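yo, Arsenate reductase ArsC is done. seq:
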Amino acid sequence: MSTPTAPSVLFVCVHNAGRSQMAAAFLTHLAPGKVEVRSAGSAPADEVNPAVVTAMHEVGIDISAETPKVLTTEAVRASDVVITMGCGDTCPVFPGKRYLDWILDDPAGQGVDAVRPIRDEIERRVRGLLSDLQIEVPA
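structure:
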């Protein structure tokens, strides 16, 4: 069973500077053009965490041009799947959306050594999400 349009996924964390940026980058990288990807934060930071940029660069994904974006109700309303990462009650909830809450360590203030295992866990979860969405990706 296929859908006429690509599913849309919104990743949300507090600052949109680490976890949600990595998740969005992995989803975009693994399924280019097959999923509409958004990320946002309930209280966006000024920039993406430099250790996160470095950790993603190590796996061949450049997110240096990304900027944290503010979470809007429109972004949630336009998404089929909303994945939260530690934003708790600040994430708006709309009926008919699929919500997942990924419990992940916050890379804020951490060095690249601490970010790598978070990055790797996010990649595993994104691959699982793509499998759930029945979207094939390269190994």
